[in-house]
Design brief:
The N and C termini lie far apart (about 35 Å). The chain is globular and about 45 Å long. It has 5 helices and 7 strands, in the order βαβββαβαβααβ. Strands 1-2-3-4-5-7-6 form a 7-stranded mixed β-sheet, with helices on both faces. It has helices at about 15-25, 75-90, 105-110, 130-135, 135-140, and strands spanning about 5-10, 40-45, 45-55, 60-65, 95-100, 115, 145-150. With about 150 residues, it is an alpha+beta fold. Helix content is about 25%, strand content about 30%.
């Protein structure tokens, strides 16, 4: 396999990110508004994964973590999450929140713990995914909310 690199996302990457998210039935919430916190996994010009961090002061929201099926199970998801968490920490975040449908065990490896939606701090409740989930209890009941304390 050719070399793979993690790099900041660019505007022209948005369609590829949206396609990956749609393929995995993940929400395609506004990417352009938060593009400065997105990273992509690229091989030979192809986008094979993405992750996004939305910063809300000392809190952050991790979203859109996805890798192409061709690289699932190869550690590329780990690379993306570690890079996203490094970005969150560099920008001053002390806590990172997320929602997941079926990857709680994956995120637990990084230290994320399950919480309730009530445990999200006020600032991060502005995240588009939080707003959307809070308005759809039928979806919220199928998700695991998680938080990581950065050290």
């Amino acid at each position: 396999m050719p070399p793979t690199r993690v790099r900041p996302a660019r505007h022209e990457d948005i369609p590829a990110i949206e396609s990956l998210l749609a393929t995995e039935s993940l929400p395609v919430t506004p990417i352009a508004a938060f593009l400065d916190g997105f990273i992509v996994l690229e091989t030979d010009g192809d986008i094979l994964g993405s992750a996004g961090i939305e910063i809300y002061g000392e809190a952050a929201f991790l979203r859109s973590v996805v890798v192409a099926q061709s690289v699932q199970g190869t550690g590329m998801g780990d690379r993306l999450v570690r890079s996203a968490l490094d970005y969150a920490q560099r920008t001053g975040a002390q806590r990172v929140y997320l929602f997941t449908m079926d990857a709680a065990n994956f995120f637990a490896r990084f230290g994320f713990v399950a919480i309730s939606m009530d445990d999200f701090e006020t600032a991060v409740r502005a995240a588009p995914q939080y707003v959307g989930v809070s308005q759809m209890p039928e979806i919220a009941s199928r998700l695991t909310a998680m938080r990581l304390e950065l050290t």
